[in-house]
Write a structure and sequence with these properties.
426 residues; Urease, subunit C, domain 1; TIM Barrel; 2 domains; 30% helix
Length: 426
């Protein structure tokens, strides 16, 4: 519902950048700007919104989701992906180039922007930095950047062609944000189904060793140092990787990193029943790995949390474990799962940095600040709300969601974006 004036009553502001951080105040929005923030605002012309335990933060931004469009519309479309993101409380997000055709040309970037232009969540396509994600030739990176590609990635794969990776690092550093790379050595992880450890041995499944991630991270750090370029690591999952990155940070090397939602919520023990909903990449690892990831979040070694939303069709999940696809559908449940997993372990100020501020900083996007005179891009939520995800809550076209039926803590209540108020609290 579009309104000229919106009045938010008694909302706790969670925005480490804002002079009002931590205060419970009224917020008046006129058109698309924050016109007033004060203890008690009265405006008979404004439409009021309030809710129990109401908090407000800069609009959440997902650093990585797969919307499957073009080419895999049976799994997800841009429209259904945006509906899932909206239910989850996001005002923006970057989407993976793993489509068919791959996002490796100006035309596909323009196609995505065209399909998303009238939707309530701001969508930014990421370009593939190699043609067809084959890791052999550089794609048309500069042309894609000119068309609006927000950054460049290689999806879930890490090119084994280190010469190409070096070239990509050198080429893009003058006109685009750092490359987004999923660190996983393909020769060590080939045909792996889950984390290599006691559980994989017990289940008789080929494992993906932590070593495959650690070696890949070390190689990429060396290449980035040689190329005098920064790099972004996507989907950090192993405890030793966190330690390697901490050492690199102490040496002053330029990098950022993110962790996937699932790796903070689950461990490889979930796979003891061969439940394919928990088959993800990077794989779920041990409780020690998960604890180290949370430590890395608090120490600033990990800079963002992504949904890693990866919808899959039923036939690709309801099959033998070896043949099942990797990935979970995660946007709708994001804050509830995160609130449950990090309750008492990570502050809400830090969580907002990880899901609203740092993702934009990593991509070089302007960051909304809750301050008078600024444009309004906001997410409203109740961090104490306990709820259970039902299958009917799923807005995505796919339902490969391991959180269905689980107790969650924290729920999005609505967003304000591009002059539009969408209130989900019901």
């Amino acid at each position: 519902m579009e309104q000229n004036k919106i009045l938010i009553k008694k909302a706790k502001i969670i925005d480490p950048q804002s002079p009002f951080n931590g205060q419970t105040l009224d917020i008046l929005i006129e058109e698309d700007k924050i016109s007033s923030i004060a203890p008690n605002i009265e405006d008979p012309l404004a439409q009021e919104f309030s809710s129990e335990n109401l908090c407000v933060s800069p609009g959440w931004f997902d650093l990585r989701a797969n919307f499957c469009d073009p080419g895999f519309e049976e799994k997800e479309t841009i429209e259904s992906g945006v509906n899932a993101a909206l239910f989850g409380g996001f005002t923006g997000g970057a989407i993976s180039p793993e489509t068919n055709p791959v996002v490796d040309s100006k035309a596909i970037v323009e196609y995505i922007y065209k399909k998303a232009e009238d939707l309530p969540v701001n969508i930014y396509p990421m370009g593939a930095f190699s043609k067809k994600l084959e890791g052999e030739e550089l794609s048309e990176m500069f042309d894609m950047h000119q068309a609006g590609a927000i950054a460049f990635s290689h999806g879930k794969s890490c090119p084994s062609n280190l010469s190409l990776l070096k070239l990509a690092l050198q080429y893009q550093k003058d006109f685009a944000p750092p490359l987004h790379i999923s660190p996983l050595d393909s020769s060590l992880s080939a045909r792996g189904q889950m984390h290599e450890g006691e559980t994989s041995t017990f289940l008789g499944l080929k494992g993906i060793p932590s070593l495959a991630e650690e070696i890949s991270v070390q190689n990429i750090l060396h290449l980035a140092d040689y190329a005098e370029a920064a790099v972004h690591f996507t989907g950090i999952s192993a405890l030793e990787t966190v330690r390697i990155l901490k050492e690199a940070q102490e040496k002053g090397q330029a990098f950022t990193s993110d962790v996937c939602l699932a790796n903070l919520c689950f461990t490889d023990k979930e796979l003891e029943t061969y439940d394919t909903r928990f088959k993800v990449l990077p794989p779920l690892r041990t409780a020690k790995d998960r604890d180290e990831l949370i430590k890395g979040i608090n120490e600033g070694v990990i800079h963002a949390i992504s949904s890693d939303h990866y919808p899959e069709s039923i036939e690709n999940k309801m099959c033998e474990f070896d043949h099942a696809s990797f990935g979970i559908e995660a946007l709708e449940v994001f804050i509830g799962a995160l609130g449950k997993a990090l309750d008492g372990k990570v502050s809400w100020d830090r969580i907002i940095e990880l899901i609203a501020i740092n993702p934009r900083r990593i991509l070089g996007i302007e960051i909304p600040v809750i301050q008078e005179g600024n444009w309004a891009e906001l997410t409203f939520f109740n961090p104490e709300k306990e709820w259970i995800l039902n299958k009917t809550d799923i807005q995505s076209k796919s339902t490969n969601n391991p959180f269905i039926g689980k107790q969650l803590k924290g729920k999005a209540l609505g967003i304000f974006n591009e002059g539009l108020m969408i209130w989900l609290d019901n």
